[in-house]
UniProtKB/TrEMBL annotation:
InterPro entries: Nict_dMeBzImd_PRibTrfase, Nict_dMeBzImd_PRibTrfase_bact, Nict_dMeBzImd_PRibTrfase_N, Nict_dMeBzImd_PRibTrfase_sf. Transmembrane segments: none annotated. This is Nicotinate-nucleotide--dimethylbenzimidazole phosphoribosyltransferase. Gene3D superfamilies: 1.10.1610.10, 3.40.50.10210. It comes from Paramagnetospirillum caucaseum.
């Protein structure tokens, strides 16, 4: 698909016209699930997962044969302020590592049969320092958003989104604080491992950015305080909705990137589940603000889409149970009202 959007106003119109869940697929799921050979509800959130996949794939039974992952990379002006434990050149170096198969996300995608692609977004042009001005102008923001929209493959059974961008837990914190309020310190974590004075500096940078750009519309908050990979992830999530591709979000950075969509249009993230809750304390707070519960908590704080990729295993298991289990009638097992 070649999306033709050229303004924030057009993104807003797309958000006002998002397709909803598929009622026929949901009804078919609800008719089959109670017949399966288990006490009702005993598969817990696996049942929620297969129901959600049916509704948003628009298909019964739901399928998990062609999962895809898209990792977006960008560089950040605020990285020059010492907000990360690592230098900015690590972004481009890790993109090369992804392409050679050497990163954690490569191994997770291999483990779960996930097709992976990496999109580097103008890595030689970091965003502007958001304490001084807008991180991106409208043309830059829309170009990155469109790159994300165009990256969504047709026919994927689920889309994992992930990111790489040294310094990007700072924009994630700033976007979250500007959208949902509260103190900069409540939203700011250690990221790659900043400590002491560097953490205090990071909190100060987040506070300065929020003070400068709050009061904007949600999409302009994402433009002024975010970055190219964040804008691209938001674009990918919007296009996935249009293509009936459910989405797995990863950690703090991916969730912050797409939170502006929900703030613009309630329900815009209904086709998204959150793979894991990150160690970044702001992630838990953000999930509460969005009314979402992650599938698991493994103490991870990597990014790259790693927690979302791991959750593909759970989605595969949910589909296998719903589609493949015998019914009480087929297996000759007595149902509870036959007792
Ligand atoms: C080697 C390496 C691999 C990574 N993979 C993801 N990130 C993660 O760390 C960065 C965010 O943390 P901060 O805001 O503290 O810079 C992002 O690139 C994120 O994807 C990595 C970071 C490093 C150093
Ligand atoms: O939760 C995240 O997205 C995260 C945490 C630490 C570093 N990079 C990303």
């Amino acid at each position: 698909m070649n999306s033709s959007i050229s303004s924030v106003a057009q993104i807003r119109s797309l958000l006002a016209a998002l397709p909803g869940p598929d009622a026929a697929a949901s009804a078919a799921w609800a008719a089959r699930e109670p017949q399966l050979t288990k006490p009702a509800g005993s598969l817990g959130r696996l049942e929620e997962v297969s129901a959600w996949l049916a509704a948003w794939q628009g298909r019964h039974p739901p399928r998990m044969e062609t999962p895809a992952a898209r990792i977006f990379a960008g560089n950040h002006g605020v990285a020059a302020l010492g907000v990360s434990a690592f230098p900015p050149e690590v972004t481009v170096q890790m993109v090369a590592n992804f392409r050679h198969g050497g990163a954690a996300i490569n191994q997770l995608c291999k483990t779960f049969g996930i097709e992976l692609d990496v999109l580097a977004l103008d890595l030689d042009r970091p965003t502007a320092d958001f304490t001084k001005g807008a991180a991106l102008d409208e043309a830059e923001f829309v170009a990155a958003f469109r790159a994300g929209m165009d990256a969504v493959p047709d026919g994927a059974d689920v889309l994992v989104i992930g990111e790489m961008g040294i310094g990007n837990t700072t924009p994630a914190a700033a976007v979250s604080a500007a959208l949902f309020g509260g103190e900069a310190a409540d939203w700011t974590g250690r990221g790659t491992g900043v400590e002491g004075g560097a953490l205090a500096r990071k909190i100060e940078v987040v506070g300065q950015g929020v003070a400068r750009h709050k009061g904007n519309t949600p999409l302009d908050i994402l433009r002024c305080l975010g970055g190219r990979e964040l804008a691209a992830m938001a674009g990918a999530v919007l296009a996935a909705r249009q293509k009936r591709v459910p989405v797995l979000l990863d950690g703090y950075v991916t969730t912050a990137a797409v939170a502006a969509l929900e703030a613009e249009a309630k329900g815009a993230l209904d086709h998204c589940m959150v793979g894991h809750v990150s160690v970044e304390p702001g992630h838990r707070r953000l999930l509460a603000a969005l009314g979402k519960t992650a599938l698991f908590d493994l103490g991870m704080r990597l990014g790259e889409g790693s927690g979302a990729a791991l959750a593909v295993g759970v989605l595969k298991a949910a589909c296998a149970c719903h589609a493949g289990m015998a019914t009480f009638a087929e297996a000759g097992v007595s149902d509870k009202d036959e007792a």
